Amino acid sequence: MLTHGSEIGVIVRLFLFFVSFRCPMLRRAVLAVLAMVLASLALASLPASSLAYDIKPRDSLSAFTAKMRPDILGISTDSTAESARAIFEAAFKGRLDTKTDIGQQKFGGTAVSYIAALNFNSASSPKQTGEVLSTSFSSPASANRAYFVARNLTFAQDQQPSRTEMIKQVMDKYGEPTIVGDQHLYYVYRAGKIVSVGAKYKEATALEAIDRPLDPKAAIKLDGANGRGSCVAAVKRSLAKEKTLSAMLDEAKAANCDGTLSVQLTPGLAPDRIATAQFTLLDFKRIVSAAAIDGDALAAESKERNPLPRGNAPKL
Q1: Do residues 18 and 145 share a domain?
Q2: I need a labelling partner for 114 at 20 to 30 A (CA). Which of 13, 23, 74, 84 fits?
Q3: Rounded to 10 degrees, what is the CA torsion of 213, 216, 222, 228?
Q4: Domain for residue 60, yes or no?
Q5: What is the pLDDT of residue 3?
Q6: pTM score, whole prediction
Q7: In whole angstroms, what is the distance from residue 178 CA to residue 186 CA?
Q8: Alpha-carbon distance 218 to 266, whole Å?
Q9: Is residue 308, in this structure, part of any structural domain at all?
Q10: Domain check: are 149 and 39 in the same one?
Q11: Which domain holds residue 181?
Q12: What is the pLDDT of residues 231-258, one digit of tens each?
């Protein structure tokens, strides 16, 4: 039986024999066949992990429903990396100073590559509003959906919107917030609905509350009776972490909610103007669910790539 090395040796000798043919057409035909044979041998020599790997996606759970699914610039946590990338490219089209970072990852030890993160950045200047748009996605095993979406706007000095206008736009789009204060409007989601802590926010009351500290009586209602922490605190801690499933998993498990949307409005040159607006969407339920699905799929892929020995014990 020929080994892989001996097969190549035979092919080389055949190559030397056939190139001695004087007929150019025959020589080219023989060389083409030999090239196909060599390519086939090269493919056969590749490890199984480098060949196509069949991933059967399972959709992860989400904090949001079809009737209550907030988005940032059209990107929700139902968005896939492919659909989100199209929105990113359309939003930054024509901006010559845009910096793009498309974070690609391999799935385990396979050759399957996917988008794990997107980050587009257009710098601000005295005459141009800057924008940063970023999103993180789970693996193809959990359908490659978003679990973190953020948009940061730094307004040019002569383009700073009024605080009244910004709060109106936010509430027109997302509805009545759960709690307002510390320059934030927080929307906390549980069981597919926005959580209420008893405070009733209209545009005027939200405008009055936004620069004050969070109402402690209202904020404490966001803590869980079972010891799970406030989602307001979970948002702040999550923003300081790396935006990967593994880095955010513990915080997601501990949060006393399924998801959050937070909008931070920082005052500008004049107190009634806004210098920066930061929108952050976090799907804690998807983080927990996708991490479990991805973990199971990666374990199965590793087991398939490194199967355990199946020998039987000898008869004694």
Answers
A1: no
A2: 74
A3: 100
A4: no
A5: 47
A6: 0.80
A7: 6
A8: 22
A9: no
A10: no
A11: 81-300
A12: 898 999 999 999 999 999 999 999 999 9
